[in-house]
Design brief:
Elements lengths: L1 E5 L5 H14 L7 H9 L5 E8 L2 E11 L8 E9 L8 H15 L5 E3 L6 H9 L15 H9 L4
Parallel strand pairs: 4-5
Antiparallel strand pairs: 1-2, 2-3, 3-4
Helix pairs in contact: 1-2
Length: 158
């Protein structure tokens, strides 16, 4: 049976293994173990990590940040990342994470969860839609990073 709970510092070593796997899955560079543990320890306020656990092993996680305002000037969560270890896919870990996140959202008095998904990942989109989530094609996802972020952040006040 898969259960969910918020991560504690004691979970960081086990979570690190899942984070390393995720970096390999996406074929992106992975920080050192020390840097990963420091990132988990020093993550920004308002960031939560929900774990999926089966038989004492972390099988996946969802990282969310509280956001405000939303519609009606209500708070919500932005789901930054959800990942289930390859060995646990199909076990119900993904659905357990989304269910746990929905419960956490309601417990906090928040009104919504927002997230993005790759347009071409039809399996993932089907998973989300089967949960009752609706795509919002009228929204476009933007990212400011790298040189553009540096340039904008370096501009003097007008």
């Amino acid at each position: 049976m898969v259960t969910t709970r918020l991560a504690t510092p004691a979970d960081h070593p086990g979570l690190m293994a899942v984070l390393v796997e995720m970096q390999r899955h996406y074929a992106v560079p992975c920080p050192t173990p020390e840097a990963i543990l420091a990132g988990l320890r020093d993550r920004p306020a308002g960031t939560e990590i929900l774990l999926a656990v089966e038989h004492g092993t972390i099988t996946g996680f969802a990282a969310v940040a509280a956001i405000y305002p939303g519609p009606g000037l209500q708070p919500g969560f932005f789901l930054k990342e959800i990942y289930v270890a390859a060995s646990a896919r199909g076990s119900g870990s993904g659905k357990a994470l989304m269910r746990g996140l929905a419960r956490l959202t309601l417990e906090r008095g928040f009104q919504r969860i927002d997230w993005t998904a790759a347009r071409d990942d039809l399996g993932l989109r089907g998973f989300y839609e089967a949960l009752g989530a609706a795509p919002h094609p009228e929204k476009i996802f933007y990212r400011l990073t790298g040189d553009a972020l540096q340039r904008l952040g370096s501009e003097p006040e007008a």
